[in-house]
Every structure is written in structure tokens, then in C-alpha cells.
Amino acid sequence: MIDHILTFLIAIPLLGAAAIAFWPVDSQHNFRLIAAVALLLEVVVTVVSYLSFNSQDAALQLSEARDWITLPIGSLGVVSIDYALAVDGISFPLVLLAVVVLLVGVVSSWNVNHKPRAYFALYLLLSGSVMGCFLAQDFFLFYLFFEFMLLPMYFLIGLWGGPRREYAALKFFIYTFLGSLLILIVMIGLYLSVIDPVETARMVGLIGPDDAVHPDMIPQIQQWLFDGKIAPEQLIHTFRFTYLADQGNYIPGSILSAASEFFIGNIPVRLLAFWFLFIGFAVKLPVAPLHTWLPDAHVEAPTPISVVLAGILLKIGGYGFIRIVDGFFPAEALYSAIPLAILGMISIVYGGFNALGQSDLKKMIAYSSVSHMGFVLLGIAAFTPEGFNGAIYQMVSHGILSAMLFLLTGVLYDRTHDRRIDHYRGLITVMPKYTVITGIAFFASLGLPGFSGFVGELFTLMGAFQSDALPVWIPAISTLGIVLAAGYFLWTYQRMFFSSFWYKNATTQVLTDLTRRETLMLVPLVILTILIGILPGLLFDLSGPTIQAWLEGMK
Amino acid sequence: MPDIAFLLPAYLLLGLPFSCFLLLWLGGKSLNKFAGWIGVLTTAAGLVVSLLYADAGAVHTLRFEWLTIGSHVVELSFRFDTLSAMMLAIVHFVALLVQLYSIAYMHDDRNVNRYFAFIQLFLFSMLGIVLSGSLLVMYIFWELVGLSSYLLIGFWYTKKRPVWAAQKAFVLNRIGDAAFLTGILMLFYYIGSTDFEVLSLEAGTISPGILTAIGICLFGGCVGKSAQFPLSGWLPDAMEGPTPVSALIHAATMVAAGIFLLARISFLLTVDARLVILVIGAITMVTGAVKALKGWDIKKVLAYSTMSQLGLMVMAVGFGSWQTALFHLATHAFFKAGLFLSAGSVIHAVTPGNELPGFEPDYDPQDMRTMGGLRKALPITFICYLICAAALAGLPFFSGFLSKDAIITEGFLWAAEFGTLGYLFPVLVIVSAGLTAFYMTRQVWLVFFGEKRFPAIVHPHESPVAMWLPMALLSALSLFFWFSINPFNAEGWFLHWIGKEHGEQLVWVPFIATAVTFLSIFLAYRETGADNPFKVNDPIPVGEPVQSPWSWLRGYSNEQYFLIPFEVITKYLKAFEKNIVDALVDLVARGSLVFGHFIAWVDRMFVDGAVHLTVFSIRSAGRAARNMQSGRIQSYYIVTVMGVFLLILWLVAL
């Protein structure tokens, strides 16, 4: 099993989805039970993979690869698409996060009564494709999962959402879809430019079909490639991340090779490709000004979907930045460090101010997400160990905290169908437990030491300060974000929870405190944010070696 | 003692209050009866530990590895030295007395367990600041102090004002903290560590310009926490919290953390940075004193006075003498805590009936206009108040005289080096010392002398022993001999103990300072003989006081939750988001739709037209072809002939 453990991570939810779709008895209890069992199994498998993951090792681990599509296309060489999965220090923290958030999401979906069969099937479909995104090691496979995610998401918002759900779902879909078109264009360019050195070596007969690959072989074949010794028909093109990340595998004279002479206007094609990829993932993160789908999608999405959206889907944007954008175009990323960091800074400050101005609780949290994800971009733009590790940490931390915040909003919405901040006052007197947990979530999110939010912000900012590519004023202005966070969270807390109790619609009996199920889904998140807030090494030890090796390899 | 021996006190000093916090918080209301005593015992144990391990003159550092990023190890370090030994003693001692006092003062509150839990949380964080061996650790606990201050100011959460005061305090502190964090991160960049030992060795490697910037950024933390201009607005509002909390946190300990920070980083402060610090301190000192002149709320007058005194301490750092700043911090901690506790005793006495401390009667029991003539009913409170007020006003034979005197001397010495303009600052100190004497005389008179102005339902009575004992101890500590044997020479054992070398004395300073103080007291005393002394008989205005046009900048007691500039930016950015960014997206969407319709029209007219045309031509051709097969024999004949002709032609051509 251990050889295919990552396949299990993708297959379990997908099989669960199939099981729900074909389950004979039409009862919601079965569907939610199947979903819960599938994700519990997922947790077990993740724990097993955590135990077999060696955090000291910077390389890809638990890898499995299989040829999927091989198609000779004449003078353009051979198309080779692999089914390749693996994890390393960059993706594994996010896989852990995803599993936790997905499970919590199912607990939060417990009372979905409207078309439960479709809901839970789509939810598991979404879970499977999310896992696929983080595990895929082949750009084509990644893109497949990346695009496929849109489908269940579109329906989950569009069918189970709030009053403006169709608008929000469509906006979400079009935004992300346009972003992924840009990714697709670059993907084709990359494909035309990069070869698989191992398979090419087999093709030209450097090694036999079943021989093991010698490490020295790859520089040799790269030298041959560089010298133009290999005929175009014999080049085996690839989508594998590892090969795309190695500039030695780029065919000289191809459109995206390091010494590419191609220009569009005055802009080198490689730089253009970098920005295309960046925009594609920036929509997901989201980066201001490409964020406007997010508040709408969140406000209209049902609670569990908001949780998954903020907790996991946004992180695919950040993951894409590190693995793909910076991974394949490091020189361009360094060259563009300042504009990227400025975009991060704008997201932080702009999102913060907008959060301050919201009267809808969910919208406020959505804008706070924009602000907090700005720190991720800032850390990535810094191009320092602190910055990258901080960005990964901040993604995990924000995943936990935003999940908590959206769940808490959902608790209130379930009771009153009203999310207006100014419709509530003094909730502490009727919902004391809820108030305490909201307080923890708010203080953790505004970066109080002892919780995870502080560490994420500290290290992304530290990375940005350490960076030689960035001027000091960018992170200095970004610290305004922590002031704004205190402003919007505490102001909301004061308005909704303190002073004497008052609710606009005066139905006090509806406002009951947290149920056991709600406590069950919130408390683990509280524990996690404190745990990694006090012992951030738990995450930094996972991501550190990979980032370190990657940065050293670049030099 | 070896460094490793300090592992135990570090665990105890931080662990005891934190476990006590958890116990009291999670223990619930069942602990209400014992909560106070649990707190008192924990703090007493802490006091014993800190006295046992006080090792003045030596430095002991404990380092713990927190995490590794790349090749960079981030450590958390804790430090035991003279400075921390002094602060440990002060914090524990004041906290012990305040908790003892609170047992009686908060006696009737339903949430007493939470109150003592939060006090312990505060102690945990404050001790963390005191023991921190690096700026990073200090920042961590700095923020936690902010949290506990938030929780304690907003302790009576069902009332509106304490809650917004709490939030205002946190947010204004956060602004300072953002600057503080920036300074810390800049140090990480330039030096790679914020450990005080490393900093003291390597500070010289940074260029002076950058060091000045770093110094000012770090001072930002002090501006927030020690309520310096322009972030001082939260301190008067923080008086909405329970009075013992004001004594502990907003007079003696937390607000002093900023001064402690400056003392810790004094070696980083360049001449330029110190000048900025000096100016900010002077502005705070003067505005605080002026505000205190006109206040009517007994606690707010003390709060403004605290602000003013903190400004004075900051100025002392600006003069380059952090030792005198700490000296004043120590004396101030005792007499100001004493004043607050006594004020609490007064408020307790004039609040009618047995209501809860959170109860709101129809008049303001904290307004000095409804007090007067209380010295007979509250003799012990009166004496304590008088002693502490004398110390604050800087009368000879009291502790405040010594420390203020020391700062004035340092000021003149600094000015002699700086130049003529520099004399402005020590003169300002003397002037505001005069103001201090004036407002304290005014307050003592308004509260304890003159006619009784409180409503008839109030029967003032002396507080129980648990309340007056702490007051008495604190006023005893406001006498000179604890700090220096000679009442006119500040350079006693205390200043030497915290590390001040023997300095120059200016013989005339005590005389000038005393003269100004007595002159002010005389002026205030003369006012009491007037028809309407201090305008006390003017009617009490209803509603919120009128705000000055600039009050938004500082937000003194302003209902505004946040600095108004932020609100304006927020308003515009929200409009920008809605009307520009999102509208643009919608426009693009709508544009695409229109374009889509256009394309559809083009498609219908031209592309489809072309298709139609093709279809049409094919159809006509077909029709033409069909016409050929009309069945007419002539046609067949013609076709046949033509075919044969073409065939022949083809054959010939071959």
C-alpha cells in the first residue's frame, strides 16, 4: 500500500463520490456518513504517509509514476504525459492542511438537506481534485485537477448558495477560468521547450530500456541537447515538474529556453510567460486587484464551501507561485520581485481597509483573507528562506484560521440567516462559548503571539526585510496590515459581542450556544492554531529542507 | 550562580502565573470564593522566588532554540540581571498589594474568577517582558500584555464604554507595535539577531542613520504602551476598567514597560533618536499636566498625571540617563499605585448602597464635583492620599522629590552640552512639576476638603483593612528613606544599585524645584478661598464634552473607535472597490456580453450568411442540375453530343 499511498489519497474521495452517486437508498444520512467515512479514511492514510515522510530529506518522496500518454508527433518529438505523484516539503504541509479542513467541512455540512446525494458527491469530487492538485508532479495532471476543481465548486456555490448564488458562481468560474487559460498557454510553451532527459536518453540509446538511470547521465544528455546532437524526432517532451524546473532540460532555441531570443513587443517571452502564470495563480490567491470574485463567492457560498474555498483553494494559488511560477522561472521572479512585493503590500493594506469598511460579517472575513494572503505573496516575492517558509506557514495558518472564522460565521447564519454585524449586540450574554471561541479566532487572526497568525506574519515580513531584492519600505508599509487587522477584528468583536444583548429581530430563543457538533469541529482548529503557534518548528521542519535545497540548487 | 541555576526561577516565574490563569479561568465560578487568595498566594510565591534569585550586578542568560529556518536558528532568550531584578520586585510587590485590595474591592462581582485569572495572565506577560533576553521575546510578551490589558479594561463587558475603551487601547497600541516590529525586523536584517547581548556587541556595525531609524521605530513600541504623544489617547479611557486594574496596569507596571524597553535598548539610541524621544516626551509631559488641571473625574486626573509622568521618564531617557528614568519609574510605581488604590477607596465610599462595582447610579461617583469634605469620614484614605500626592507633587522628604530632582539635574547637565536651546527642556520639566503640584493640591482639596457635595443617599465609610493596608504600605514606600538616606540627594543606594555612576550635582536644583512646587501649592491654596474655587459649582454639563477641533487626532475620550484618518481612507477605498474595481469587472463582463451579441450578429449576418450563400449556390447548382434531367430528349441529345465532343477533344489533346 505504501507504494501507492498518494494514489489512495486521491482515489478514496473519488470512490466515495461514486459510491454516493450509485448508493441505492435515498437517505441523506447515508450520504453524509459515506462522505465522513471517506474523509476519515483519508485522514488515516495521511497519518500513515506522515509517518513515512522523512522531513530531513529535501527530495520528492512517496513518489509513484507511470506513463500515461505517449504519442509520437513527427518532427515535434514525442508527447509524453505521466501520471506522477509525490510530496515534498512544499506540498506536504498543504496536504495535511487540506485533509483537516476537508474533514471539518464535512462535519459542518452535516445538516445539508437539499439534494444531499448531489451535494456530498460533489464535495468528495472536490476533495479528490484538491488532493490531486497538491500531489501531482506532472503539469498536465496538475492542470487537469486544477480545472476539474472548478466544476464541483461551480455547482456547490450555484446550487446550495445564497440569494445571488448564480452571479457569484459564474463570476468565480469565469475569473478562475480566464486565469487558467493563461496557465494553459504557458503550459503549451513549456511543453514545446522541455525534454525528459531520462526518456530521451533511452530513445537515443544511451541507456537500455530497462536500465537504471545513472545520475551522471542527465548532465551528459543535457550537454548533448545543448550541442544540438539529438534529432528533433528523438526528443521526448515532458510535463514533469522536476524536469520543467531544471533549466538544463530546455531545448536551445526553443521558445522558453533560458537564452530565448523571442520577444513580444519589447518583452522577452520568458518574462511574459512568467507574468501569465503569475496572473493565472494570482486570481486564485487572490491578489488585489484580481480579488473581486472572492467576497462574492464567499458571501453566496454555503458555509462548508466557504471553509474549503478559503481554507484550501486559495492555497493552490500560493502553491502554484512556489512550485510553478518561481520554480520554472526563478530568474524572472527575482527580476520582478519589487512589483510582486508591491502587489502583496497592496493586497495587505487594501484588503485590510476594505475589511474595516464591511457591514457583512462574511464579507469582512473574506477581505481579511485578501489581506492575509497578501503576506503569502510578500514572503514569496522576497525570495529568501524566511520568506518561502513563512509563506507556506502563513498558508497553513490562514487555512486553519479562515476555516474557523467561516465556521463561526456559519454558526450564526444557521440560527438567524442574518450576517449583518450591526444587527447583533452583546452576544456574549446568550452565547458565551461561541464568544470565547470567536475571540480566540479573532485574536489568533490579528496576529497575537502564541497563535499561528503571528508566526506567519512575522516570518513573511522577516523574509521581506531580509531580502536584498526588496527595498525596506515595502515590508514597512505592510506592517500596517497588522494594525488594520486589530482594527477590523476588534471593532467587529466589540460591536457584535459586547454591551447588553440586542438582536434586530429579537428572537432570542433562536440564539442558542454552540452545539456539541459545532464544538467538535471548532475545538480541533483552536488546538491546531495554538500548537503550531507555539511550536512553529512542526511546520518549518517539514518545509525547511526542501526550500533550502531548492534555493541552493538555484545558485 | 551559574546560568543554568536560573532555569528553575524562569519556569516558576512564568509558569506559576500562567497555570494560575488557566486554573482560575477554566475553573469557573465555583472558584469565586478563593480566586483572590489563590492569586495572592501565587504572586507571593513569585515575589519570594524573585527576591531569592536577585543577583544584582551579574547577567544570566537562558537560551532556548525555537525554530530553524534554513541555516538561521531563531532563539528565545531570557535574561536575569539588575534591571530585571528591580522590575520583578516592583511588579510582584504592587501586584500582590493590588490583588489583596481587589479581594475586598471586587467582592461582589459575579465574575471574580475571571478577574483574577486575567490579572494572572497580565502578570505572566508582564514578567515575560521583564525577563526577556531579546527584543523578539519582548515583542511576544508585549502583545500578550496588550491582550490582558484589553481583557481587563473591558472587564465589565456589558457596559458600552469599557468595551470601546479596551478596543481603543489595543488598536492604538498596535500602531506603536507595528513600528516596534519594523524596528525588530530591521535589526534581524542588519545584525541577524535581537538578543540584547549580541546587539550590545554589534550595534556599532550599523551606520548611524539606520541606527537612528531603528531606534525611532523601537521607540514606537514605547509610544504606544507608555501612552506618549500622539498615541496617548487610550490611557484616560482605560480608566473605565476596575480601579485596582488601573493601579496595577495603567499606573505602575504595564505603562512602565515602554520605559523599561528604552532602558534595555539605551545603547542603541543615537543622539538624533534621543532628541526625537526627548521632544515626544516633553509634548506628552506638558499636555498630560495641562489636561490634568481641568479634569473632574478623579481617576482621569490621575491618568493624565500618569501620562505626564511617563513623559517625564521618557525625557530622562532622552537626556541620556535611563537610570534616573528607572528611578522615577520605581518611585512612581509606588505612589501612583497608592493614589489609585486610595481613589478606589474614595469611589467605593461615595458609591451608594451595596451595589456591584459595575453598577451605574444616576450621578457619576467618580466626579470630584460630587465629593468634598471626605477627610473626616475616610481618615486613613485621606492620609494615604496626602502622602502619595505629596510624593507625586515632589515635596521634599518624599520619594518623588528625589527622582524628579535627579531628572532635572540630568536635564541641565544635558542642556549644558547641547546648547542654549536645550535649556528649554529642563525648564519645561520644572514648569510641569509646578503644574503637577497645582493639580494635586486641587484634587486633594476637591475630594477631602470644602463642603460635602455628594447626594444625601451616600454615607461614606472607611474601607476594610484588606483595602487600606495595601494603600498604607504603598504610601509608606513613598517616603524618601527607602531610596536614599539623604532626603536632598537623589544619588542614594538605589541609583547606584541600578548602575548609575557618580555624577555631577547641581546644588541649586533642589531649591529651585522646591520653590516652584511650593509656589504652585500656594496658588492652588489661594484659589480655594475664592467664591467658586476651581469652578466647582458650575453646573455639570450633560452629555459628551465638547471636542476641540483637533481632538480627532488624539481621540481623547472621543467616541470614535479608531483614528479618523483611517476611517476616511476606509470609506474611500470601499467606494473605490465597489465603484471602480468591481465596476470594472462588471463592465468587462457586460462589454463581453455586448461583444458577444455583436459577434453573434456578425455570425448571423456574415459567417452564417456565407454558409447560407454556399448552401444557396449548392442548391441552385443542384436545381440547375435537376433541370438537366428534365426528361426531354433534346436535352439528353445535347448533353450527349457535348460529352462526345469533349471526349474527342480530350483524346486529340493527348
From TrEMBL, chain A:
UniProt membrane topology term: Multi-pass membrane protein
Residue ranges of the TM segments: 31-53, 92-112, 119-137, 143-160, 172-194, 272-293, 305-322, 334-353, 365-385, 391-413, 434-452, 472-491, 520-540
Keywords: Membrane, Transmembrane, Transmembrane helix
Compartments, as annotated in UniProt: Endomembrane system; Membrane
Domain NADH:quinone oxidoreductase/Mrp antiporter transmembrane: 136-192, 266-474
Listed Pfam families: Proton_antipo_M
Similarity annotation: Belongs to the complex I subunit 4 family.
Protein name, entry field: Oxidoreductase
